[in-house]
């Protein structure tokens, strides 16, 4: 599906949303550890780890696209320390189609799956998320963007643009 609109998330907003997620997660813990789904889950995982005072951090890397097997998701880094996920919190920035989340849940069936943002298709794959985003919206994370100079309107007018 091609996104028709963009939703820009700033660092401040992401931090606020991660803290909101941490508050809801507190009574569900303590967790033995956190499994970050790289790469987008790394920063949310770091914020949650700080808030939840969790120092055991694992990672799982799922590649959903490569030149040889288009569309076949593959785990290229296994979260060995997390076993079957029991007592662990799995963190990602976003679920969209849910393909990544499905693979992770198959690998860590007993883990609790939390993310910041969820689109309708992927939403049922999560245990907890902070905010729903329309399916046709592309989320631009702070690491995807940079501030850009834009000429003042008056300047544009004198240039005849
Ligand atoms: O629900 P899905 O359709 O699977 O999409 C969601 C996944 O897509 C993005 O990761 P991506 O695979 O782009 O890699 P990245 O985290 O390394 O940027 C995002 O961080 C989620 O992990
Ligand atoms: N940055 C970003 N990555 C994605 N991967 C799948 N959906 C999205 C999205 O909306 N934004
Ligand atoms: Mg990702």
CATH class: Alpha Beta
Which percent bin holds the helix content?
25-40%
Q: What is the count of structural domains?
A: 1
Please state roughly what percent of the residues sit in beta strands, choosing from under 5%, 5-15%, 15-25%, 25-35%, 35-45% or over 45%.
25-35%
CATH architecture type: 3-Layer(aba) Sandwich
Shape: globular
Reported by name, the CATH topology is Rossmann fold
Structural class: alpha/beta
Largest sheet composition:
6 strands, mixed
Bound molecules: 1-O-pyrophosphono-5-O-phosphono-alpha-D-ribofuranose, guanine, magnesium ion
**Stretches where pLDDT falls below 50 for ≥5 residues?**
none
Mean pLDDT: 94
- Report the radius of gyration as a whole number of Å: 18 Å
Within the largest sheet, what's the order of strands? Answer: 4-3-2-5-6-7
The N- to C-terminal Cα distance equals 34 Å
Number of strands: 8
* H and E string: EHEHEEEHEEEH
Give me the number of helical elements: 4
Binding site for 5-phospho-alpha-D-ribose 1-diphosphate: 39-40, 92-100
Catalytic activity: IMP + diphosphate = hypoxanthine + 5-phospho-alpha-D-ribose 1-diphosphate; XMP + diphosphate = xanthine + 5-phospho-alpha-D-ribose 1-diphosphate; GMP + diphosphate = guanine + 5-phospho-alpha-D-ribose 1-diphosphate
Domain Phosphoribosyltransferase: 11-147
Family: Belongs to the purine/pyrimidine phosphoribosyltransferase family. XGPT subfamily.
